[in-house]
Specification:
The complex is a heterodimer of chains A (about 575) and B (about 325). Helices cover about 45% and strands about 15% of the residues of chain A. Chain A is an alpha/beta fold and about 575 residues long. In chain B, about 45% of the residues lie in helices and about 15% in strands. In chain B, the strands form four sheets. Chain B has a five-stranded parallel beta sheet with strand order 4-7-10-1-11, with helices on both faces. Classes of the chains: A alpha/beta (about 575), B alpha/beta (about 325).
Chain lengths: ~575, ~325
């Protein structure tokens, strides 16, 4: 297989076993569990699993959702083609209109925010639908949107499994049917809720959906085993499938937990009465309490080895598909420069080009009239005549220069930096980009030039830029960031070019305090990263500064030392780093 | 369809629940913005609120829930003029909804099949006299948010497109929710929301256990659970109705006005919306508490929700603007 080698401790037999359990549990309680998030490339392992799934889920039909799904297809609406043909309104019922469905979403990592929100809405409505998300993401940031992932109980990662690791799955549909019948009667032991919440808490899972879904998984597992009460094994299974994949931290050693357990009075029972008949069973089956440690041990055993690396990746801003494309030209049918219209289907998203539609229908009128002489309409329009409007929209780019005009910078390279900026300005002019200029010196930063296309003005301001004073790097970054936010709201696509020698010595509040200044600068850099603004750090100190390189890393920016670099090389580098 | 989770059974999140109740008492406060982590009960509470609110009386055939035949817009072809009781509408606005679906558009199907120029009402019409809920409001396209806020403030939806010239009433309470890690909302838009609430998943383990316990009971023992909590919901509904009746009589003294103004000046909030909302919300809160005059106690309780989102954003202030408001409240209303 082409997939990268699995982490060493993942035993393929166990992984496959867990996947099989997940599928069985989903079949027992599809509505309650919400669904399955299957991370796997297209391959034999996934094929095997998906081959058995529809049979197990029966009688619930499975429906494959294309990513380009429209609202009409999902929720039902007017069927335009049928309406035009019949002359009366014909409504289609949509994928969701006919009772619970298993919605299989291929290429789930490319799910758009809009469709993800709709699926979340569908899952929240509690009508028994479930979602099987097939996530083929290769990179850490290519993944199922969180809104959906959070609502799917079972998370299974099949990556790295070869055909030999995956024996045929044999799950008896009758067993599933029997388990479904048993499910409503399955009880939880009295302290299961508490234990699961504690385990989730210690794994650092903030969402409260996770423990709920884990309990549902535990119940399904008990129903599958034919147990009247959820046992320890069921909860271990639930923890492995639901909680462990969501862990955001390694479980802390239980130093602080015994105390709250000891002093805590037995919590009140809101469930009136329905625990009492089972309580004696509880004591027989589950002697003392479900040991939290056992569950944690189970979770710890399958925590991915690269958890920490993943965490770092998870903190990086999620650049949604919608925002990733800004700046480049994008085709749409809402606004912008008109493009020739295209044949297409009306789906509520698009606008019809009436003139083009009529023009397309015109040549056929005679023939159509001959075919349907009794039609009451004056113009006979068929679905294939429909033409949709398209527009091309281009958002202008804005290059924000944040220039360090402090004493130290002025001493070294300010003149060269000005030269480089002028060169960049020339190019920005040629590309019709907007330019803004922020300078920082002394104890504050100021916007010398708000976003403009006027080259002359920019050059004049830049030439008149005096040097001297401290280096309020954080203040400079903040001004640049504010400007970026502002321009984004006006439909520009900002990028930041920071020119500095990196010796931040003025903190945000204006104090001359080196450590505080460095810390402020670091936090501002993180703020820049959080907005996913493309950035470039140009180091104009005589020797490249390691802390400036780190700062660039925090900002997710390209770092470019300028040791005697000529303006030409600089401008080439900037163009390479910032042009999307 | 099962009943939504009862409002009064939601554990904790008192500030969010209070903000929702206040908008139910006085819809004029403006919308509520709920920012917080996933799985903290944002959507649950909005859906629960709908079930909690008293039903409205509306013309059965009217697309925008008008209270009487005279209020119905003249473009609507009302076939059924009887007055019926409807639950308070709560309309979900999905991400990626187009302008057409939100404001309404030319009814293409009728235009093509019957050659008539007719208007197909959008989500705004359906949300009239109720709630419009937008999950992930921070990811919504800016032009849709602009449009929504504009309608929410004016209370009227005006459509001038494709040869249509139509207007209808659209008075609704906008409830937006989102996760700030996924994107911020522009300050201009923030300011238009009346109240803003920050929710976090409860840190207290007992509270978390209680949440799960109730939710679990809701799912496994639906009838028993609902029987227990419907009573609580009914009591809350009575209180809301009483507060609505009392609202007109709640007085705000000059001192209270002065306090509002001083608070906003101390915080450096732009514009006068801060004062206005603070006063309105405090009045509604006083009515909810059964008082007939706004006191400092009420202002103190409401100020964080009413002012938090009107401050200049400071990306480095990790404590959050709520703390800044509380500090200012402590100083000004000492």
């Amino acid at each position: 297989m082409l997939a990268p080698a699995p982490p060493p401790e993942r035993d393929p037999v166990e992984v496959w076993g867990r996947a099989a359990t997940a599928v069985a549990l989903l079949a027992v309680d599809p509505g309650g569990l919400g669904g399955l998030w299957l991370k796997a490339r297209v391959g034999p392992a996934r094929e095997r699993l998906m081959a058995v799934l529809p049979g197990l889920l029966a009688p619930m039909p499975a429906a494959r959702l294309p990513l380009t799904l429209t609202d009409e297809q999902l929720f039902g609406g007017v069927d335009l083609a049928a309406t035009l043909a019949a002359g009366t309104v014909v409504r289609s019922r949509g994928v969701l209109g006919n009772g619970p469905r298993a919605l299989v979403v291929p290429m789930a990592e490319r799910l758009t925010g809009g469709l993800a929100a709709r699926l979340a809405q569908v899952l929240d409505a509690g009508q028994g639908h479930c979602v099987v998300a097939l996530d083929e993401g290769a990179e850490a940031d290519e993944r199922l949107p969180q809104t959906v992932a959070d609502r799917l109980a079972l998370h299974v990662d099949l990556s790295g499994l070869a055909l030999a690791d995956c024996p045929d799955l044999e799950i008896d549909p009758d067993l599933i049917a029997a388990a479904r019948a048993r499910l409503p009667a399955v009880r939880l032991p009295a302290d299961a809720v508490e234990t699961v919440v504690r385990v989730a808490h210690r794994l650092g899972i903030a969402s409260l959906r996770a423990p709920l879904l884990a309990l549902a998984a535990g119940r399904a597992s008990a129903a599958l085993d034919g147990e009247p009460v959820v046992t320890e094994d069921d909860l271990i299974c639930a923890v492995e499938l639901v909680l462990a994949p969501r862990a955001t931290m390694l479980p802390a050693e239980p130093e602080e937990t015994p105390e709250p357990e000891a002093e805590e009075p037995p919590p009140p029972e809101p469930k009136t009465g329905d625990d009492t008949p089972e309580s004696d069973v509880d004591e027989d089956d589950v002697p003392d309490m479900l040991p939290e440690e056992v569950l944690l041990e189970a979770a710890r055993a399958i925590l991915p080895a690269d958890l920490l690396a993943k965490l770092a990746a998870g903190k990086a801003p999620r650049v949604t598909g919608a925002s990733a494309g800004t700046g480049a030209a994008k085709k749409g049918n809402r606004r912008g420069r008109p493009l020739p219209s295209r044949p297409g289907r009306l789906d509520g998203q698009s606008r019809i080009d009436l003139v083009a539609t009529l023009r397309a229908a015109a040549p056929w009128q005679v023939i159509r009239r001959r075919l349907t002489p009794d039609a009451p309409q004056k113009v006979l329009i068929r679905a294939e005549d429909i033409r949709l409007r398209r527009f091309e929209e281009k958002s202008d780019r804005l290059l924000i220069f944040a220039v360090d005009a402090s004493g130290s910078a002025a001493f070294t390279r300010l003149a060269e930096a000005k030269g480089a900026v002028e060169l960049l300005l020339g190019e920005a002019y040629a590309r019709r980009d907007h330019v803004a200029l922020v300078a920082f010196r002394g104890d504050h930063a100021e916007v010398l030039l708000p976003p403009t296309r006027s080259l002359v003005q920019t050059k004049r301001r830049l030439a008149g830029l005096p040097g001297g004073g401290g280096t309020p790097l954080a203040a400079g970054l903040r001004s640049a960031l504010d400007l970026a936010d502002l321009s984004r709201g006006r439909g520009l696509t900002p990028s930041i070019a920071l020119l500095t020698d990196g010796r931040a010595n003025i903190a945000l509040d204006g104090r001359a305090d080196r450590p505080a200044a460095a810390e402020d600068a670091r936090r501002m850099a993180l703020a820049v990263r959080a907005t996913a603004t493309p950035a470039l750090v140009i180091d104009m100190s005589p020797r490249p500064q390691p802390q400036l390189r780190d700062l660039a890393g925090e900002m997710n920016a390209t770092y470019l030392p300028l040791p005697r670099a000529d303006a030409g090389r600089l401008s080439a580098a900037v163009a390479g780093a910032l042009v999307p | 369809m099962t009943h939504p989770f009862p409002f009064s059974a939601i554990v904790g999140q008192d500030e969010m629940k209070r903000a929702m109740i206040l908008t139910a008492i006085d819809p004029g406060i403006g919308g509520v913005l709920v920012f917080g982590d996933r799985g903290t009960g944002k959507s649950t509470s909005v859906r629960a609120l709908a079930a909690l609110l008293p039903p409205i009386t509306a013309v059965a055939g009217c697309p925008c829930n008008s209270a009487s035949r005279a209020d119905c817009p003249d473009w609507a072809e009302i076939r059924d003029e009887t007055l019926v009781e409807k639950p308070t509408p709560v309309v979900d606005l999905p991400l990626g909804a187009t302008e057409d679906r939100v404001v309404g558009a030319l009814d293409i199907e009728r235009a093509l099949t019957r050659g008539e120029k007719a208007f197909e009402p959008g989500l705004l019409a359906r949300a009239n006299r109720g709630y419009l809920y937008i999950d992930e409001v921070n990811l919504l396209e800016d032009h849709i948010v602009d449009l929504l806020l504009d309608v929410a403030v004016s209370g009227e939806n005006v459509i001038e497109r494709e040869g249509l010239s139509i207007r209808h009433k659209a008075r609704f309470v906008l409830v937006g929710s989102g996760n700030p890690e996924e994107g911020e909302l522009r300050p201009q838009l923030l300011d238009r929301f009346g109240l803003s609430v920050e929710v976090a998943s409860p840190k207290d383990i007992d509270q978390r256990i209680e949440v799960i316990r109730r939710r679990d009971a809701y799912e496994t023992d639906h009838d028993g659970f609902m029987a227990h909590w419907t009573g609580e919901d009914a009591a809350l509904r009575t209180r809301i109705l009483a507060a609505r009746a009392l609202l007109r009589e709640v007085k705000a003294s000059d001192d209270a006005l002065r306090d509002c103004a001083r608070l906003c000046v101390a915080l450096g909030a732009d514009g006068l919306r801060g004062e206005l909302t603070l006063l309105r919300a405090a009045r509604a809160y006083a009515a909810f508490a059964g008082a007939n005059e706004v006191t400092r106690e009420h202002l103190r309780a409401i100020a964080p929700s009413a002012l938090r989102h009107r401050l200049r954003r400071d990306p480095l202030d990790e404590a959050g603007s709520g703390t800044r408001v509380e500090r200012a409240v402590a100083e000004v209303l000492a």
